[in-house]
Amino acid sequence: MATEPVRQLNPQDEFFRYFFGGQMPRENSSMGSGFLISEDGLIVTNQHVVGTNPSEIMVSTIDGKTYPAELIGVDELTDIALIRIETEEPMPYTEFADSDEVIVGEWAIALGNPFGLFDDGNPTVTVGVISATNRDFRPDPNNPRVYIDMIQTDAAINRGNSGGPLLNSSGDIIGMNTFIYTGGTSAGFVGLSFAIPSNRIERIINQLLTTGVVMLDYDPGMEFTSMTEQLIYRYRLPYVHGLLVTGVNRGGPAFDSGIMPGDVIVKIGEERVVSEMHAWALLRDFEVGDTMRVELIREYELFETDISLRQKVSASK
């Protein structure tokens, strides 16, 4: 298999705090893994590995060479980053597989450098199976990242594996190793590892490669906020997770679909909405021309409506 995972990334970020709780603020170097997706040196890793504005990123490859890397773009919401290294020769890389085709029970192979233990350039390989798909998981309520449709595997993943590839038995990328679940303790791997699916990675990096940022190409035509106990009691709303619609743009897609201020959106597409950040992550799965089914509560009655998504109109100068 033509894969060349990156052994170490060294930006300034909060990688250790992300996995093991709060620490005193300080400048330090973090480490993680990544993988090449093109012969001209494009590398995918986690955003929490490289940070938002690192002063320096150094990449070590399995041939023992070290390269400075350029940050192409990051998307904090989905925890995906794209970087590039300049090389004289074409680099070997791995193809993406269709993560929608992943089957529970099939083999899964995780590559990376757990704990940054090894300096010989060779990645550590762990093998397991796909335990589940379409897992929605938010490990830290104070963290802006939202993880949806995650792939769960029992292949061992530890600190330092983050950002590395999760492969199928053909050696193609089905996901990116991102975090483990430890049951709220400081324990290490307990058989619950989660990877961002490859289809989501491809959508995000295509935008990062084009514009350096990820943004919707349509405007849903409404404003909303997360439901809170204060809002529920103040406006006598149903006690549910969801979004309170606070404004609707006249003539916009939401207005045309009949959505009104005061409606409570509880479902977007097939997913129940947990928070505002979760909603923005779900909206990433739609594009201009799609019809987005929304389930909402109005005056304690449940309704469904379809929003036809149109091209965002640029403001006139």
From TrEMBL:
Keywords: Hydrolase, Protease. Residues 220-300 form the PDZ domain. The keyword Phosphoprotein does not apply. GO terms for biological process: proteolysis. The keyword Protease applies. GO terms for molecular function: serine-type endopeptidase activity. It holds the Pfam family PDZ_2. This is PDZ domain-containing protein. It comes from Rhodohalobacter mucosus.
